Amino acid sequence: MSMAEYKGKVKHIQDTPFGYTLSVIGGKWKMVLIYLLAENQPVRFNDLKRQVGAITYKMLSSQLKELEADGMVTRTEYPQVPPKVEYRLTERAESLLPVLEQLCEWGVKNQNIDAQHKEQG
Prior knowledge:
Blueprint: H1 17-25, H2 30-40, E1 43-44, H3 45-52, H4 57-69, E2 73-78, E3 84-89, H5 91-94, H6 97-120
Antiparallel strand pairs: 1-3, 2-3
């Protein structure tokens, strides 16, 4: 279904495919984590923390658990000391990568336009 099919019929955004998608990848960090995992998988927890930077350990752990619960990320724990945990995208998450690529292309086309508007404003 497309957005046009819902025009004028949406009472609650969460009842639409768009709302569902946002529930899985929405928020400040989930798309960032998916992007980083797509670039470098598998990735260890501390490496993700380093790459993201501003995220707290608690928030990173929470976001990864949510992505895992939604079937977007797999977590592999190795029985060693110190513990080693790696994360990678599932096929389900990889099916989102073309959408992320389109977002990147949009950014390439519009980043300079945004900078020009800020200079003029």
